[in-house]
Amino acid sequence: MKDYTWDYVYDKAVQLVHEAGDRIRSSMSEVRKVETKSHVNDLVTDMDRAIETFFAERVQATFPTHHFLGEEGAGHNLDVSSGTLWVLDPIDGTVNFVHQQSFFAISLAVFHEGTGKIGIVYDVMRDEIFTAQHGKGAFRNNEKLPQLKSRPFSETILSFNAGWILKDRSLEQLIVDCRGVRSYGVAALEMAYVACGRLDAYLSYNLAPWDIAAGMIILEEVGGRYMTLEGEELTLDGKTTLLAAEHGTYEGVLDRMARSQTY
Description:
Elements: H1 6-26, E1 34-36, E2 43-45, H2 46-62, E3 67-70, E4 84-92, H3 94-99, E5 105-112, E6 115-123, E7 128-133, E8 138-140, E9 143-144, E10 157-159, H4 171-177, E11 180-182, H5 187-196, E12 201-207, H6 209-221, E13 225-227, E14 240-245, H7 247-261
Parallel strand pairs: 3-4, 10-11, 10-12
Antiparallel strand pairs: 1-2, 4-5, 5-6, 6-7, 7-8, 8-9, 12-14, 13-14
Helix pairs in contact: 1-2, 4-7, 5-6
């Protein structure tokens, strides 16, 4: 990458995320225009689009040679493995944003030639930011996160949408064997929670690149593991399943799901 150090790109990315968060918080009392996309529960608001436009314009102005991929339409035909690419979910957890006005996040990642360089997940209403820069560790509000450690599966806290149980009954054994199951409805934030130890694993069956890009980078810096539920490497090429976890929990989840499917 010419002309810019990664430290400079990182600082600029964090700055933009905080500015976007300020814009969202200051508008929370305004009436939102809410529409649906692929189905009735797939919501998008005027704020999603406004925040994506804000990032796209600022990235283009500051880094004119960089590419930009956003959930609400920007750059969907890009080659994600070429050049420097910013990947944004302007409001991850739009349903929470609309109905609860909490538990939503800005998710931003920067990749260079297919390698994750910068990951940022910002819980706007809690003012809690998870950041990572390739090879320099992961942080929560500027406090470095330790490497993940294993624990007995009976003590783990897992996260997945309860609706997935209707599609994959092998999840039932996980519920029996773990300590508890949570669901927050914010993929980027749930991956960040795995990275900081609040969760031990996060599973999902239908995620897009902007849902997982930042979380992948943050998890990698704390020794976490992420793959598809089919055991394949994650890519940013389209929709995917996901298992993100500490290594021991990762193996425990897959083992229990595999054994359940044989009964």
